[in-house]
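Would you be willing to look carefully at the protein I have copied below?

:::
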Amino acid sequence: MERLTDVELLQRYRRDRRELLNFLLAASVIKKVVMPPGAVSYEDIDLDQISVDYILECVRKNVALDLSEAIKRYHDDLNLPPSAGNGFGEVYFLVTRPDFSGPVPNRIPPNKAVPVQSTPLSAVSKRSLSLHSTPEAALDIDDEIDDFDDMDDSAVKHRKSSLNNNISNFVLSLPPFETGLSDDDLRETAYEVLLVSVGAAGGLILPTKEKKEEKKSKLAQKFSRSKTDKYQPQPTRAPGLAGLMETMRTQLEISGASDRRTREALLHASASRVGKRMDTLLVPLELLCWVARTEFTDKKLFIRWEKRQINLLLEGLLNHPSQALDPSDRSAVELRGLISKLEEAETLPSPAGPAQHAESLKAIRVVATALAERAGRGDHTGEVCHWVDGYHLNVRVYEKLLMSVFDILDESHLVEEVEEILEMLKSTWRILGVTQTIHDICYTWVLFRQYVLTGELTLLQHAMHQMKRIASDGQRSTQERFYMKGLRSTVEGLEGPQELSYVQSVLTPIKSWVDKQLEDYHLHFLDSPQKMEVLVMVAMVSGRLIADESEQAGVLAEMAVVAKQAEDYIRSSIKLAYDRLLEALDEKLEVENVHPLALLAEEVQTLAKNDARVFAPILSKWHPESIAISACLLHSLYRKELQPFLDGVSQLTDDVTSVLPAADSLEQLLKDLVASATEDEAVKHTFEQQMVAYQVEVVSGTLIMRWVNVQLSRLSDWVDRTIEQERWQPISMQQRYGESIVEVFRIIEETIEQFFNLKLPMRIMQLKGLTNGFDVALQQYSNKVVAQLGDKADLILPPPGLTRYKKEVAIKASKKKGSDPRDPDERRSSEINMLTTATLCIRLNTLHYILSHVDLLEDNIQDRWAVKRPQDGPNRANKSLPSKLSGFMLSVAFEGSRKVVNIAIDKICEFTGTKLIFWDMRTTFIDGLYSVSVSQARMDKVVSALDPVLGELCEVIVEPLRDRIVLGLLQASLDGLLRVLLDGGPTRGFAQSDSAMLEEDVNVLKDFFIAEGDGLPRGVVENAAAPVKHVLSMYSLDTNEVIETFKRMSEQMVGGHEITGRQGPHSSLDSDKLLRILCHRNDQVASKFLKKQYKLSST
């Protein structure tokens, strides 16, 4: 915060001195007080002209206080050069001019090599008056007085803190005083004007001596009591106008002597002008004429007072008149000359000096009265003579009067008598040319300036309320409008001289100050949004009033200007806040070991959230899309920092894994803020177009897919390797599956863990690519398991050629021994023999492991994805189409694997059944069943051999696959039976009478698999046995009937069909089956038919 100006510091130091005097006198620590000649009480003494340091010295030495010496010491100290220091140990006198060399440093001076003796307290007095010492240093003198316990610490603390608020640049846009009138000059003049206005109403009285003795000041009463006296609460102020005037005197910090002196002069002036109102007096002139030099205890004090009155005449009548005066104007030149003579008279000895003084005053009265009687304010007040001609001095004086509403000990609060004071100040309107509008404007300024000084929210709210009461140009009366248009001034601006109305002169600096605050509202109002809300309203209302003065207002135009102003605040504050984030990065990076862009993204997210939470509700009242504007701007600012990094990304690194997620999270947050800003899709689309995507998804997606492809390639290699190394032994009695599938799923789960630990922005397509790779790997595994089995056709020997049955040939063929030339080669036979029932079951169990674990795998992936991307999670309410699509894509991620695994299970079940029947039990079943005759080789022998095989299957296979593997064995058994019945070769011959035994054998086989309800369902068995029953029904027919049926069916067949072509056991060609039945018919009729019709031999 910048330092206060010298004038403001001086004013504050004077107030502090008065408080210190009050403190010292109230504490009763002074041994004795010697009054100066002519003074009866403290009201006769100007406390501003007393050296506080001298009083402190008397207190420390416990000697009598001579107020005459105190006054002399004060004026002597003024001639000393400025001093500065820190503490009582050392004082440094400045030999240079501080106004050219700048403020002195606030740091403590370096220690000297030798101890420094304590400087007497009197030396510190020279420092206490320096304009350039720090406020804290000036106030630290209280620490040296340990016995003063009555000081209001909270008031001092508040005063010190209020010094931190800089108002040096917060001034009215009015021309400066050419004579250098100070705020103290204006304050004292304001009280004089107030006395005149009260006197015009008959309320100006001069207290009698008795009354004056009764109403001694609180300080004097405290001084008069002894140290042993108990504190007695003082009565409240006197009722009525007298008490209120006493309050005003205190508030304006006017000494009793000055008050009495001014009252006497004004009463004499009014008495000398019988028939004229007191408020038509030319106040400075009358005071110059009626206040004598002898009424001041010090000549320098009189000269300063006289200079102030002269300056008031110059400012009010010549420097800033309502109607411009030519510098060469006779009256102006004459008045300046007379004033010079008046000042010169003070330097002349008696009697020449007093004579010239009286003569000059008499001449000044004539010239000044003529100037004051000019029609400077039109017909507004109806006056003939006004105390000043121009309005610039009037409004500044009225400002000082309004400043009296603040408590001098706690400047952030209004006094209790504020309403009475404001009502009394209306009596000054006639003198100062104030209207209701001018009052509202000036009071707004005073309240707002006090808020700037103290930061008190209540004052800001009062100022806003007062500003709303300011009437616009169209709301003023015709007379007031004409009067207000005449109140204009020319000030120097950035673009040269500017002519401003009074409304503009007051509200322009207010709006400029507010604009400066709101242009960085993130800095000033993060912890005080209530102040910001009121200040935004101040900015908008003041802007409207200023525009109204320029006749630029309009409903639509005003709305556009308000929205544009709010947008400017947003853009300015966002940029400044963002710049601060950039500046603070280096310091934070020393603590946090992260990439700067990642840290910046987190900070911007915090900024965006604070903006949406704290400031957007305020600004959205003036611009509905405030959230969208700030979000778009933050998006653009961060993009400028991010884009060079994205352009350089080529591989997955630690920096990439930290920056990309942070950037993506920030972008999603900003997009969500834009989406929440408005329901208008067109407006929303406009803002979305402004947010050029970071393309983090593209960069991240490319890196992720590269990583996924590498991992899937490794997974494919692992599948091949584990399959090759698999021995198809159960892991344990409980884990009856191969180790290879466990290893495959371990690799898959590790890959999933690594995938989700990438912490990169990812979309469903990258995850889908990974799951597709897993799906392909599992299909690859399943296919390789099936491929290891080889061709099922190798298990089934080619059927023998068709021959006529002949018993002798059948007996001879059944006795034939040796290897069958139709067997596969030795290598293939060895491979088939290695495919034991247990290993085949382990394969099936392993494939079932895939089916059971892909469900768990899907659930795991969906859960991890829901954590990674909550917006795409399956449980999100009101899911959008992309979210629903994501859930569907994940739920069917392994459908391909499920299908392929089920097909593989069916194939292995079919392969297992075929191997057991056609390979392992070929001798018993395929070769032995019904060999030579049905009665000698029935099905019960086959079932007996089949029972332990089925038991082994059920022991190893997992429960969910039991029915499927048993069904495969049933189907293979039925296929084997059909092979015996239709392709049994020359050893099989069936008579019509054998059909009953065949039916019985089929029922035995079915009952074996039904197992009295513990096996396969009866319906499943019956459906599987239907083709066998169809063949058996043909065996039960008479041979001639079979032949006739065959002939009829053959005629119906498509031409060119070769009846010798094998159609298989499941062929739907009944003619083919009939032919095969005739070939296996143990019947002469069938044999002759085949020999005659098809030339079939019996061998």
About this structure: Residues 555-589 form the longest helix (35 residues).
